[in-house]
Specification:
single chain; alpha+beta; 4-stranded mixed beta sheet; about 30% helix; about 25% strand; binds zinc ion
Length: about 130
């Protein structure tokens, strides 16, 4: 099931990497889909335009969306559920239950861990 979505006006035209407000560059490669949590047993795919912005620090990049990480094909909610499931059961069971490839579970966990580590200084207090 595909659902058309779009960011609110305050969340539009932001750099996908640093989230700073940037001027629009072009329309990008058209519409893009992300995998979201299933709804009523159906796979749910939010679909939105993916324009590019011109960031002073990062150059021309795809604009950020508030529901997914930059360069990710899954939403925050989907990543969070996969990460939680992976802590409670095996990677194979997680992949089967979430209907993704075994390798995708690993990629999601790496992304999730990278975000979790970004706000933590492991040497603080030593
Ligand atoms: Zn940037």
């Amino acid at each position: 099931m595909v659902v058309a979505v779009r960011p609110r006006s305050r969340a539009r035209r932001r750099c996908g990497i640093c989230r700073s407000r940037c001027p629009r560059f072009d329309a990008g490669a058209g519409r893009r889909r992300w995998r979201h949590l299933d709804a009523a047993g159906l796979q749910l795919f939010p679909e939105a335009d993916a324009p590019r912005v011109s960031c002073e620090r990062h150059g021309v990049v795809v604009a950020a969306v508030p529901w997914a990480r930059h360069d990710a094909g899954h939403t925050y909610d989907f990543d969070q559920q996969v990460a939680w499931l992976a802590t409670e059961c095996s990677k194979s069971a997680t992949a089967q239950l979430m209907r993704v490839a075994w390798r995708t579970v690993g990629a999601i966990l790496a992304r999730y861990q990278r975000d979790a580590d970004a706000g933590i200084d492991r040497l603080a207090g030593l």
